[in-house]
Amino acid sequence: MADIYLTEFDRIFRHFYSRDAANDIAKHGGQTKFGLLDDSDRWTNDYFDPSKAKSHRREMFFANPQKTWQAEAAKDPDVFAGEGVRGSKGTKDGGVPVARAAARKKAVVKKRAKKKAAPKKKAKAKAKTPRKRTARKS
C-alpha cells in the first residue's frame, strides 16, 4: 500500500512543481511554453490521419455506435499499425519486437536461476509419541 501512496505523492509533487516553475518564469517576464495545453485544434490531427494509431483507435471505438469494439477489433489485421516498432533494435524473424523478446528471455533465465538457487526442503519424519500422563500422588 505504501507504493500507492508514494506514487500518488510523486504525481502531485511533479504537478505542483511544474506549475511553480511556470509561475516563476512568468513572474520574471519569461514565456512558458512547456507542459501547457495547445489552444489550437492541432492536437486533433493525429486522431484523423489514417496512418496514425490514434485514428485507428478512434475509428474502432467511436466510428459507428451500433458496432461493438470486439467485432471491429477482430477484423483489424494489425491493431498496432502506425505505432512503429517499440524498442530500438527492430524485430526478430517472427515479427516479435527484439526488446519484448529479450525481456521474455530474461524472465525465463531469471526463473530458472531462482529454481536452482531455492533450497530443497526435506520433510522431517518425526513420529511424535504422546507422553503418558501419570497421576500425582497427593
One letter per element, helices H and strands E, the order comes to: HHHHH
SS summary, helix count: 5
Distance between the termini: 59 Å
What percent of residues adopt helix (DSSP H or I)? 40-55%
> What is the count of β-strands?
0
**Low-confidence regions:** none
Shape: extended
Structural class of the helices, strands and pairings? mainly alpha
Biggest pleated sheet: none
Overall mean pLDDT stands at: 75
Radius of gyration based on Cα positions: 30 Å
Beta-strand percentage range: under 5%
Write the layout of secondary structure elements.
Blueprint: H1 2-27, H2 45-48, H3 53-62, H4 69-75, H5 98-117
General description of the model:
It is extended and about 100 Å long. It is mostly helical and 138 residues long. It has five helices and no strands. The model has no long low-confidence stretch (mean pLDDT 75).
